[in-house]
Write a structure and sequence with these properties.
heterotrimer; A alpha/beta; B alpha+beta; C alpha/beta; B: alpha+beta; OB fold (Dihydrolipoamide Acetyltransferase, E2P); Dihydrolipoamide Transferase; Chloramphenicol Acetyltransferase; 3 domains; eight-stranded mixed β-sheet; four-stranded antiparallel β-sheet; 18 strands; C: alpha/beta; Rossmann fold; five-stranded mixed β-sheet; 20% strand
Chain lengths: 332, 414, 325
């Protein structure tokens, strides 16, 4: 099995201005959606738990941007940007969060725990690493059907220590399956910093153990994330097997709405604020005159309208019918 | 004007309450949607709360430093006109998805089994067989048991039933003797099986049907005249006396034919209208209240009814009723008038939906064409189940019975 | 009608389904080139190819998870756990992903997990376990447990064709000890339906798996020696249970004995007893009794195993006791 990673046929330098603006748009949309979800949670309109992917937008958006329609996406709770790039509507996100009867799971599960086979999005379970073997299975089926598709799955620096990570990645490697596993290393697993989670110097070092190529990249650089994933995807499509990608970012908010992350040193937050993925890309696009006041304002208005529309639509939709709660355990 | 509640959110799955740290706005302030209006503190995290709506903060219910449960209303915001950003018809804070009603629990309709009696244990199956086969407690106690410890087993009771042959049975339930000692002077009397059954039935009937009683007076003159004219010939031809009962049964049957809904029962939310009219006649027998039934009364003429009624009365007196005789009634008549009672309020015989009580026939002064006449009058009471029968139907049905009796054809064949 | 062993009937069922539907494939440890630890899949890889008979690494979680993912993506996998005891390593995948997906996502998960189960083979604590009760309690998983070769083939075919996850418990004790007639061709046994193995009017025995055969022996003994007529219900499916058959069989005799090889406390027998007590209370002429394994891990030494696991003798005693009650 080759561990050489060649340049992709469509590197970031070949992206059109429209594509680059798309990357910017999706990152902004993801961040605004997350903020809206937080607001609704604090207003008591979303119940249970609420999570944001603040700081993770480049990883989520850049990676999903390398996918084609036939590819499979297994995102996590801080990858709202990936859902949106893959085609999930803003309305479906809020219907799901507000647990409405006409939402993707009819209120039966929350947050990103939904699946849309049309878009080939399969959401996470709370036992995050448990999705890795399932992603491997999808990759197995896809390769049996000779679809030429890839399966993109994510896991965190914490979740990468669960047994399923090992079993799933090992199986994908030995069976040469088209899996892209992206480890989102945002420095903290809830309140536990990297130093208490693993002894490896870098999580990409684990790739050697499975016999697959692995790389650690700056997860706040959306262009780099895109290109790295595009390469890995093409490798997989060529039948050269899985790739492990460690994207290094910072979790800018608490673990969830009920965590103020007071255990994170203030200096660390300050340092990462300067590496905000959206601001970085905005600077580049502005310097290249691709983004300016006019289209930026239009984009912001479009985002605001989309979210406002989705929130009112969801608020006006009905909760699920309690009388049907016992149905649907089995397929007929 | 739409009013929006500001509620204490649940900031984490295990959080049950929150404390208001600081209000950033005061009553009367204009607020934009999503603008921070207060800060709260919980066990896990402190949080700024954005306003759920735009408008004027009109009332603050909870003060700073107060701790309240999750979902408590903290303040009210009134919308002003269309405002900026106020959305949709949201007035109240959204309720969590409706908690589904638990599926209705199937209640077993079988009555409680009797308690063990005199040290012998009877299994549910044995008691079940005893009930359906009409084996009373006294008989059960005498059955030899081949089960463990001398227990009466299923085979034991089935053997007994086979050897005994068929037996008339108003179903018996075992009676448990009261175990508490009587107060001095008080006497403990056991309730017979029939009495217990009656007691259970009456309680259940009242609990099941909302009873309404309508009273109508009847001028029995036409009936009396007819009877007087035909009684001698009738007795000679049939060998028994012509009583009032067949007249009343006949009138009831005719009235039911006009108002067939009376001949029904209720099953859940479905009305089962019965095709045959089986009239039960409440009879005070030696061992208690029995209700033998004239089956298919709709197919009988007056003479047929008279014969059927007499047959039942005789067999009741001689304790020769069979289970079929007391089952399947669709309407019941209770003639308490024989005890002198003028007006009664009978209890419906479940699962029927109405019962006719007939009072004593007495001569009374009545007004006819503005003059006073003496007539033989009686009060009839119709008690009916107001789940199905309303006052109009009940009244009309009762009036029809009265009309048939009062307009009796003097030449009707008897 | 052809006669085959229990294990051959299972193999036959899988073979026919793989011929019939190209989306059916097998995955598990040592199932391909080696033909399986019990040789259940001998000859399969040669015939169907390594693409459809996949030798996986030793990774129960990955096996079950991958089967789930493949089912989501349109295939119909049959995954093997080498011993039912090892399903514990894949427990999370089964109950977190496999069982819950349809309820949450309305997407069918058509997969079968084969579990060589049970004792009486001197396997000790980790090769003899009965694990069905754990999954019996998880909504979203179907469970079958055939006791004859004909039912093994019929239920395997039905399990593969079911659009839901089915746990297929195979009793290793029966693999080569039991031979029986197995109908040729498309013989299907519906999931959720039991079968009356023997008619009788005095005592009803409700059982499944290996103990079905012990119950049959016991019924012969008490018929000959005591003149007792035993009605035997072989459940065949545990989830869903054939409630109607259970209640009818209780009504026929009024006395019921539940027998299973799995441990007594928290076993499937408790649920069956509760169902009977709730829905057939007035048909009972005796308390509901159970003959099950003692509440211990299954020990290795035969002198211990035969005390812990139920056998014909204990069933005979229990039938007599109920008859005399």
């Amino acid at each position: 099995m080759s561990t050489k990673v060649t340049a992709p046929s469509r590197p970031v330098t070949a992206l059109s201005n429209a594509d680059r603006l798309s990357l910017y748009y999706f990152m902004r949309l993801a961040r605004e959606c997350d903020a809206a979800i937080m607001k609704l949670y604090r207003q008591g309109k979303i119940v249970g738990g609420a999570y944001t992917g603040k700081g993770n937008e480049a990883t989520a958006v850049g990676s999903a941007f390398a996918l084609q329609k036939k590819d499979y996406l297994f995102p996590m709770h801080r990858d709202l940007g990936a859902h949106l790039v893959k085609g999930a509507t803003v309305r479906s996100i809020f219907l799901q969060q507000l647990g409405r009867g006409n939402g993707p799971t009819g209120g039966r599960d929350g947050s990103g725990h939904y699946a849309d086979p049309q878009l080939r999005i399969y959401g996470n379970v709370s036992h995050l690493a448990a999705m890795i073997p399932v992603a491997v299975g999808a990759a197995l089926a896809s390769s049996m059907k000779k679809e030429g598709a890839v399966v993109m799955n994510y896991i965190g620096d914490g979740g990468s220590n669960v047994g399923d990570f090992h079993e799933g990645l090992n199986m994908a490697a030995v069976m040469n399956l088209p899996l892209l596993l992206i480890v989102e290393n945002n420095q903290y697993a809830y309140s536990t910093p990297n130093a208490k989670e693993f002894a490896a110097q870098r999580l990409s070092d684990r790739g050697v153990g499975y016999g697959i190529p692995a790389v650690t990249i700056d997860g706040t650089n959306v262009g780099l994330v895109y290109e790295t994933c595009a390469r890995a995807a093409e490798r997989a499509r060529r039948g050269e097997g899985p790739t492990l990608i460690e994207a290094v970012t910072m979790r800018m908010d608490g673990h969830s709405a009920s965590d103020d992350a007071s255990y994170v040193p203030a200096a660390m937050i300050e340092e990462w604020k300067h590496k905000d993925p959206i601001e970085r890309w905005e600077k580049i696009l502005t310097a290249d005159r691709v983004l300016h006041e006019q289209n930026k304002k239009e984009m912001e208005a479009k985002i605001r309208d989309a979210i406002d529309d989705a929130v009112s639509f969801a608020e006006e939709s009905m909760p699920p019918d309690g009388g049907k709660a016992a149905e649907g355990v089995f397929a007929p | 004007m739409a009013r929006t509640e500001v509620i204490m959110p649940q900031m984490g799955e295990s959080i049950a309450e929150g404390t208001i740290v600081k209000w950033y706005k005061k009553v009367g302030d204009r607020i934009r949607k999503d603008e921070t209006i207060l800060e709260i503190s919980t066990d896990k995290v402190d949080s700024e709360i954005p306003s759920p709506a735009a408008g004027i903060l009109v009332e603050i219910l909870i003060k700073e430093q107060q701790t309240v449960p999750v979902r408590t209303v903290l303040a009210y915001i009134d919308a002003e006109g269309m405002g900026d950003g106020s959305h949709g018809p949201v007035v109240e804070s959204p309720r969590p998805a409706a908690v589904p009603e638990p599926p209705p629990v199937q209640r077993d309709a079988a009555p409680r089994e009797a308690l063990p009696h005199r040290g012998r244990f009877y299994s549910p199956l044995v008691l079940n067989i005893a009930r359906t086969e009409g084996v009373g407690m006294e008989d059960l106690e005498r059955i030899p048991g081949t089960g463990e410890g001398g227990r009466v087993s299923k085979n034991d009771i089935l053997r007994y039933v086979a050897a005994r042959g068929s037996k008339p049975a108003a179903p018996h339930a075992g009676g448990a003797a009261d175990a508490r000692p009587p107060l001095p002077g008080n006497e403990i009397l056991p309730m017979s099986n029939v009495m217990q059954k009656m007691a259970e039935h009456m309680v259940q009937s009242v609990r099941t049907s909302p009873h309404v009683s309508a009273v109508h007076e009847v001028d029995m003159s036409a009936v009396l005249r007819h009877r007087m004219e035909h009684t001698k010939a009738f007795e000679a031809a049939n060998g028994f006396k012509l009583t009032f009962t067949p007249y009343i049964v006949d009138a009831v049957v005719k009235a039911i034919k006009k108002y067939p809904l009376i001949n029904s029962s209720l099953d859940g939310d479905k009305i089962i209208r019965k095709s045959s009219i089986n009239i039960g006649l409440a009879v005070a027998a030696e061992n208690g209240l029995l209700v033998p039934v004239v089956r298919h009364a709709e197919a009988m003429n007056f003479l047929g009814l008279a014969r059927a009624v007499n047959d039942l009365v005789v067999r009741t007196r001689n304790r020769k009723l069979v289970p079929d005789d007391v089952q399947g009634g669709t309407f019941t008549i209770s003639n308490y008038g024989i005890f002198g009672t003028m007006i009664g309020t009978p209890i419906i015989n479940q699962p029927q939906i109405a019962i006719l009580g007939t009072g004593a026939v007495v001569k009374r002064p009545v007004v006819i064409a503005d003059a006073i006449a003496i007539r033989s009058m009686a009060y009839f009471t119709l008690s009916f189940d107001h789940r199905i029968v309303d006052g109009a139907l009940g009244g009309m049905f009762l009036a029809e019975i009265v009309r048939v009796l009062e307009e009796l054809d003097p030449d009707m064949k008897a | 009608m052809p006669v085959s062993t229990y294990i051959d009937a299972i193999a036959r069922g899988m073979w026919e389904e793989m011929e019939r539907d190209p989306s059916v494939f097998l995955l598990g440890e040592d199932i391909g080139a080696y033909g399986g630890a019990f040789k259940a899949t001998k000859g399969f890889q040669e015939h169907f190819g390594a693409d459809r008979v996949i030798d996986t690494p030793l990774s129960e979680a990955a096996i079950i998870g991958a089967a789930t993912g493949a089912a989501l993506a349109g295939m119909r996998p049959v995954a093997e756990m080498q011993f039912a005891d090892f399903v514990t390593c894949g427990f999370n995948q089964l109950v977190t992903n496999t069982a819950k997906i349809h309820y949450r996502w309305h997407i069918p998960v058509p997969m079968v997990v084969r579990l060589p189960t049970g004792g009486y083979i001197h396997g000790g604590p980790y090769h003899s376990a009965s694990t069905e009760a754990w999954f019996f309690h998880v909504p979203g998983l179907k469970i079958v447990a055939p006791s004859t070769p004909a039912d093994a083939k019929g239920l395997m075919k039905a399990a593969v064709r079911d659009d839901n996850p089915v746990l297929f418990f195979e009793f290793k004790y029966l693999y080569r000890r039991i031979r029986g007639e197995v109908p040729d061709g498309d013989h299907l046994v519906p999931i959720g339906r039991g079968v009356i193995r023997r008619e009788g009017d005095d005592v009803t025995v409700i059982t499944y798996g290996s103990t079905t055969h012990f119950a049959m022996e016991a019924a012969d003994i008490v018929a000959q020696e005591d003149g007792i007529g035993t009605r035997i219900v072989d459940l065949r499916s545990l989830a869903p249970l054939d409630t109607e058959m259970i209640l009818e069989a209780v009504r026929a005799t009024g006395k019921v004995l539940i027998v299973h090889e799995a441990a007594l406390t928290g076993g499937v027998g408790g649920e069956v007893a509760a169902l009977i007590a709730e829905h057939a209370f007035t048909d009972l002429d005796a308390p509901i009794r159970r003959v099950c394994a003692l509440d211990t891990p299954v020990p290795f030494a035969p002198a211990l195993e035969e005390v812990v696991l139920p056998d014909t003798g204990r069933i005979v005693q229990a039938i007599r006791g109920l008859y005399r009650f």
